[in-house]
Structures are given as structure tokens and as C-alpha cells.
TrEMBL record:
One of its GO terms (cellular component) is MHC class II protein complex. Residues 3-86 form the MHC class II alpha chain N-terminal domain. GO terms for biological process: antigen processing and presentation; immune response. It comes from Egretta eulophotes. This is MHC class II antigen alpha. The keyword Cytoplasm does not apply. Keywords: Disulfide bond, Glycoprotein.
Amino acid sequence: VGHTLIQAEFYQRDERLQQEGGEYMFDFDGGEIFHVDLQKTETAWRLPEFGEFTTFEAQGALQNIAIDKHNLEILMKRSNRSQATT
């Protein structure tokens, strides 16, 4: 039986509401190991004991999210898009 380790990250922006957000997290076999709190800029371990066995520098996740944001801005500039109206 194999195991699955997932690293997931995303950045999103709602131009209408002028809000942005994102997520950076690690998951093992369907259970979260940790995520990075982007507002507090720190690693949040699902179980505090996990942090006793290993470390993760939140700065690396913040750099990845900054790259995601930059890439989204490039894609938005290159695409033919218009803001939706409600």
C-alpha cells in the first residue's frame, strides 16, 4: 500500500471585493500535517507534536505565494478578460 504526500498552494484575488488570499499546506494520506498562516507568516502544525520532529520555514511558502501572485498578474494582463457584473 502506497502513501500520498501532497503539497498544495494557491493564490486568488477578487477584484470586485478588493480581497486576496491563498493557502499553502502539506497533507499526508488525507490528513493535514501543517499549513502556513499567511497573515501571521508562521507555520501552523495540525498537532503541536509534529513541530517537535521537524521544522518548516514559513518564508519559503510566502515566497511561493508571491510567485503565484506575480504569475496570476501576468496571466490576467495577457488574457482577454472583463470584470463580471452582478
